[in-house]
Amino acid sequence: MASVDSVLPEAFPTQPIQYLSRTRAWYSALGYEPYRWPHHDQVPFAPLAKPLAESRLGLVTTAAPLQADTGDQGPGAAYNGSAKFFDVYTSPTDDPADVRISHIGYDRIHSKADDANTWLPLTRLNEAVEAGRLGSLTARFYGAPTVRRVRSTTETHAPEIIQALRDDGADVALLVPT
After folding, report:
1. Distance of CA 33 to the CA centre of its chain
2. pTM summary value
3. Where are the domains of the chain?
4. Which of 9, 65, 101, 123 would suit a FRET pair with 117, their CA atoms being 20 to 30 Å apart?
5. 3-state DSSP call for residue 126?
6. Percent helix / strand / coil, the chain, rounded to 5
7. 50 CB contacts (<8 Å, ≥6 apart)?
8. How would you class 75 by CB atoms within 10 Å of its CB: exposed for 0-12, middle for 13-18, buried for 19 or more?
């Protein structure tokens, strides 16, 4: 039997990516104070009140609306902090905004970022609705800023998104972080 190392492409990591230590190092290199991950004494999740096949799902993404005047944001683009956004946004699910992920510090060696379904899976979710596995989608999806501020996220952005989900009649939310 072949070893794992002999069948994986050379560029594919065989060890887990050390996310926490990489994030700490990245923030330090950018001059930020040590990153504090949010924590909750009580888990802010709840069991489903009804089956997914009967539920309305609201999609929350950290992908940014395309800002054509802020540089390359296409697949494989270098990190582009100018494309970052700082306020919650919404967009119709039946005619979605063009959203990208160049504003995120993701692993550009092992990902081409060429499948929009990885950050805005509306096509896959609509297929689930058509197949009867999901009841419906809310009329819009929601953009959550990634501004590296726990206070902004917990006191402003998350409550805004929760209110929008409630206003749109969502039974369940799917968060797709990028």
Report:
1. 24
2. 0.79
3. 50-176
4. 9
5. helix
6. 30, 15, 55
7. 171
8. middle
